[in-house]
Amino acid sequence: LAGLPERWRVWASHRPASQVLHLDSAAAGRASFATLRAVGDHARREAEIGAYVAEAEAAPALAAARAAAAALTGVCAEGVAFVESASAALQRLMSVWPLDAGATVGVLASEWGPNVEAFAGRGLGIVDLPADSGGRLDLDALARRLRDTPPTIVHLTQVASHRGLVQPVAAAAALCRAAGVPLWVDAAQAIGHVDVACGADVVYATSRKWLSGPRGVGVLAVADRWWPALRVRRAAMLPDDLPTVHRLESHDAHVAGRLGLGAAMREYIETGPAAVWRRLQEIGRITREALVDTPGWQLVGSEASGAITALRPTGGQDVAKTRSRLLNDHGILVTSEQPARAPHDMRGPLLRISPHVDCTAEALLRVRSALAED
User: Fold this and answer.
1) Which of these, 24, 125, 247, 252, is most buried using a 10 Å CB contact count?
2) Is 351 exposed, middle or buried (0-12, 13-18, 19+ CB in 10 A)?
């Protein structure tokens, strides 16, 4: 790490030493000592004084975590619910949103496959949104669609899971707001990676990826203009003055995980979100430059952006076996992606490389050399 700028050497030093070359932040980032300590300390406190007493004691820290999530997603703290994951957030959202028979959702071809399955399972009609040749939302065509045949909801995955594709969600939010069509944003790969405070009606995300928070925690953020419309049941066990969105939370929750997420967000905010966004954009660029002409592999997306890079095998390699070989023989952690991840955008399996801010050029040359053995 000697060649890294001081800010990112410090970032790396706040984490346990990795036993692998960790290039898999899009799956789960490496938690910091502060995050691990927040989770462990609360779990210990539950054992010492009782779980519900410990939760009450942690109320100020939980409120601070909620405020941080609100700031990152661009909504009021009363509009933030802590949930178990991004997929849980979407299911919870669909269970309370005013969706009548015949409702439709507009999605891009690059949409996360499980989201499309969830929409179909809820009975929503799927409408294709217009995109350019690289897969980015065509804003002019969207404006025409919103004017002529608007879907009930527009849903965008801000940063694709399977390749370097970042959607213009802020511009889309402005168009949707003007047309009176709600925009939902899946920010699972976006929060901690790019700016997600985009003016959308809903933003939902997970803790474990680019924020490097714990697994089993997510965030659902709903803009205040939609709170009165949510069909949320008032449970007798809950206080009457509990904010509507907070009623979407599980009250038998992983409180330690929520506090760990709070610690991860605090560290991210103290590091400087804009600096992190710039660095991750740079990391994506240097990753693609290092791997662009690796024998037997082709970069996916000529206009890729963000820190996620995908490679397509050109020599018949088995991507899952390559992923295992990289880990077992070279200590390099990446992801093998199957087409179900984005079935309307992926033609076959891909190898995903997703380094965080502490990645070095030397590490990427190590990946290139290992891949060349296939």
Assistant:
1) 24
2) buried
